[in-house]
Amino acid sequence: MALWGGVGQVASIAQLAGVDAFGLISMIVEAAKTVKRNRETCQLLARRVRMIGDLLQQLQSSQLMQHMATRNPMEQLEETLRHAYILIMSCRESSYLHSCFTGGKQAERLREVQNEITFYLQLFPLVSFVDNTRTLERLMNRDRTTCSEATAGGLHEAHHSECDDRLRKKDLEATKSIHAQKPGEEQTEGQVMDMGELANLIGGGKGAQLLYFSFSQILAATDNLSERNLVGNGGFGYVYKGKLSNGLDIAVKRYNTSSFQGPEEFRTEIEATPNLLHKNIISLLGCCTQGGEKILVYEYMPNKSLASIISDETKRELLKWCKRLQIIKAVASGLAYLHGDSHMCIVHRDIKSSNILLDLEMNAKISDFGLAIMLAPNTTAEVTVLGTYGYAAPDYVATGKISEKADVYSFGVVLLEVISGKLLFSTKVYDDSLYRGLLLQDYARMYREKAQELVDPLLDAKGNEKAQVVECIKVALLCTHCLPEHRPAMSEVVAMLHGIQIIGL
């Protein structure tokens, strides 16, 4: 690359020739923490480099990574990482390194390296997808082979068709037997798995990361989908509490197959959620697609949703400020991960307090990715408007143009709910008849000079906590600005909240 001809000496000074990709990634992430110039660009570059590291770890066992065609880009990646490290170091130190870049070229060269890193972020998930798809195809072919000994010697087209017909008939019979099965009877998962349907529904790369449950296992875990185990419902269908044979509590989300949006939301959830590995994102354990069922199995969250806590005065009174602040920070961290720190830019589109779930220790996790979409960073897309009125950003509702700033707006509304102790559509939101009919965020803007008027009377904030509440109200008002360009990014929200220390946990 001619661009780097002038910095060859710097590379030799840094002695990077023998450092592998993982070592370079670690060095880049550490160096970016103390940069003095082009700070935002350097830290964004470091985040994307860290994503590369996460992807490489996932790909280490991939058979395709052993092929020369895949190894060549790996060597080129290491060269790009060396250049990235040199650039970031030049932004950190006012020394010989910096003198090599004087002339206003740093930002331009950082952008060029960032573009190269983006290429690898697109390449490596594709390698993973191809590798997983091949694995799934091998499993499907092996499943077909067991249906008839005749398939072992390379059959004609008519023989393949006959075998497929027998498989479909076998699956249908198994499904019927399970629906008629008695609660105590056992059924083997492999007998009923319709691999073809699952592969068509979710794609090999995504489905390969999920556990596959038979319908009999779902029935056994939920006491035949008993009403006693019903913990939630909505337009999508029903959610049941269940318990697996190993004692693990689970949440079983059974989609209403007659729902217009149900199949699409099911597909979206199993494409996005398994790839999201963050402590503040709900864990999807597996799914069941047998016999036309569309069922998702999640980790169980015993304290249910944030909305259920806010709407219950007894529970809300126990939710002191330190715990509320912890929940706020957790949701912000999860959204920042979705928008920029995961290997995809995901816009949730339906952030609201009922989609924030709480575990036994009241740790918050974002759930329900049925409306989520993937975007390139810092871009917009024109889509069908979906979501929940009041939480959905007004610019998105008016134009159909979506960006991550739509989630920022929704987060601001949830933040106001946590502070005020009132849900968006609570009949008790306003005592002043002058402001009846306003949304919570509009009401908050009316009272921005009298912040204490917004605070939940049950909160009983004392001393330094009152100042923290006021700061959080300011953050919420920034997030709910009517113009998306004036809203902060979630990474900026995390930084603002980081300065507010949690005391009393």
UniProtKB/TrEMBL annotation:
Major location (coarse): membrane
Membrane topology: Single-pass type I membrane protein
Coiled-coil blocks: none
Compartments reported by the entry: Cell membrane
Domain Protein kinase residue range list: 225-478
Gene3D superfamilies for the chain: Adaptor protein Cbl, N-terminal domain (1.20.930.20), Phosphorylase Kinase, domain 1 (3.30.200.20), Transferase(Phosphotransferase) domain 1 (1.10.510.10)
MF (Gene Ontology): ATP binding; protein serine/threonine kinase activity
GO cellular component, one term: plasma membrane
Residues that bind ATP: K253
Cited InterPro entries: Adaptor_Cbl_N_dom_sf (IPR036537), CR_Ser/Thr_kinase (IPR052059), Kinase-like_dom_sf (IPR011009), MCAfunc (IPR045766), MLKL-like_MCAfunc (IPR059179), Prot_kinase_dom (IPR000719), Protein_kinase_ATP_BS (IPR017441), Ser/Thr_kinase_AS (IPR008271)
Signal peptide feature range: none
GO BP annotation list: cell surface receptor signaling pathway; defense response to oomycetes
Family: In the C-terminal section; belongs to the protein kinase superfamily. Ser/Thr protein kinase family.
Name of the protein in question: Protein kinase domain-containing protein
Organism whose genome encodes this protein: Eragrostis curvula (weeping love grass)
